[in-house]
Amino acid sequence: MSTVLDLVHDSVDARDLARRLGAYCLDNKFHIDIQISRVPSVAEIIEHVENLALAVPKSVWAPVHAIPGSLDQILGKELLESLDYLSLVPHIDYYALLRGVCIAALVPWFEQTLDIVELERGDPFPLPLRPNNKVFEKCTAHFPTLRRGELLIDFLFGVYSGRLGNVKMNFQSREELDHACWIDDPPSFPSVALVYPYADGSQIRTPPDEVNVSERWWFGSGPTDKAWSTADILRQLKYSKSQQLTSHPCQVALLPELSLPSPDAMETLIRAHWSEIPELVVLGSAHARTASEDYEFRSNESVVYLNGVELFRHCKRHPFATKSFSTVEGHLLSEGLSPPEHFSLASGTLTRLSVLICVDAMDSTLVDGLKELGVNFLLIPALSPEIGSFNLAPVSISTACQGLCIIVNGVPPGETEKPLFVCIASVPESDPNRQINVYYLPEGVSLPAVGILNPNVSLQTAMSWL
User: Fold this and answer.
1) Does position 66 have pLDDT exceeding 60, yes or no?
2) Could you tell me the residue range of the domain that residue 202 belongs to?
3) Listed residue (268, 307, 304, 262) closest to 283, CA to CA
4) Which range has the worst mean pLDDT, 96-105, 173-182, 280-289?
């Protein structure tokens, strides 16, 4: 039978050890909870192990470097004896060492890292520390309340369940991301620009470039040749930043799904004019193909820029299915997307930013994964004729993570009427009547247009139009 020291022997560094311990504790959490409740003295010994872990030389705990020598030989006699004693209570030695490694190694490392951190099942990770409770008079509950009983919640850490597969959490621009998504004085959210670059759905290609009836998928939609240009979008982005319609600066911009001919269509313009546009820009999305000799990867990609530099990309995970493009009556064709290899998001100290695309927001597995990861700033480009279950993501993120969520919806392909809805926004208000609101294009406003949303005021009056 393996022991906790077997995990230590097999680990190459402190993060690897924490991942192995975390996975074990996830598998045995029910039994860990029972043992802690039945044996009161266990809590004191766990705390002792945490203190002994803090006394281990910092060189041992460097999370991204190989452990110098055999870890079990340099942890210290007293720590090993404590773990041996705890092994008499099943599973608790693993839990105690997990807590010790996190407190001694991962907490200080995550406070400073500028890496792209890959998360696998069992990996401990920090939750964001944004003080939302100062924004709203009655705010939704914070992590320690909602996640009471989780393995590491008392020092605001989670243990990744693997729900979203391989996750890449980008800390490379942590200070800039916090600056874009949060205002310190007074504590508040920035205003968000909702950029609608086209007049109606006739400017989006329909039918799409490729319809495969036998395999039941379609792919290759986007702006027509006579639609808007990237220069038009740039003008709208500049305009949104220059017009001070609210007391909170416009630091974030979001476009609808399929707003671009290709994911990188605006990269050169964004790099050249980044200081004239909002700091954080989510450029809707675009269909893209990447072909090799034996495989074609098809994606619906949304590129996120921060201060003119690409921060990360989200590839749509939940394909849109429709009968509209089928030549066989009654056949439902799915958006022909290839499964992405990983899920990307970005993090600061205060902010955890994620992007979903359209029906992603109705996928309960995706939404539950974002809640688990502590996402508190969620932006969603969409292109839908119906509201459907779009309220799943906004309500979940605002309730479970004290988050801000904004969906911007364009006019579906071929439609010439006004969009059914242009925006859904949710904020961490505990009152359900104040937490979420749906916005429609008001009388007298025609597309293309720019809406400015100030999430710090009542959502009923939060939207202004340029």
Assistant:
1) no
2) 169-465
3) 304
4) 96-105
Distance in angstroms between the alpha carbons of the first and the last residue of the chain: 68
Token digits for 155? 């020092």
d(CA 130, CA 187): 9
Are 346 and 430 members of one domain? yes
Q: Rounded to whole angstroms, how far apart are CA atoms 354 and 370?
A: 8
Q: Are residues 97 and 198 in the same domain?
A: no
CA 458 to the chain's CA centroid? 25
Q: Which amino acid is at 130?
A: R
Percentage of the chain modeled with pLDDT above 90 = 59
Cα–Cα distances in angstroms (integers) from residue 283 to residues 209, 231, 251, 312, 413, in the given order: 21, 13, 14, 12, 18
Which of 65, 81, 112 is at the close of a domain? Answer: 112
Q: Which of 64, 90, 112 is the last residue of a domain?
A: 112
In a domain, 136, yes or no: no
What's CA 114's distance to the chain center, in Å? Answer: 17
* Cis check: omega of the bond before 186, within 30 degrees of 0: yes
Q: What is the pTM of this model?
A: 0.94
Statement to judge: residues 289 and 372 lie in one domain: yes
Find the helix packing angle between 29-38 and 92-101, rounded to 10°: 100
Q: Which residue has the higher pLDDT, 63 or 317?
A: 317
Q: What is the CATH number of the domain that holds 238?
A: 3.60.110.10
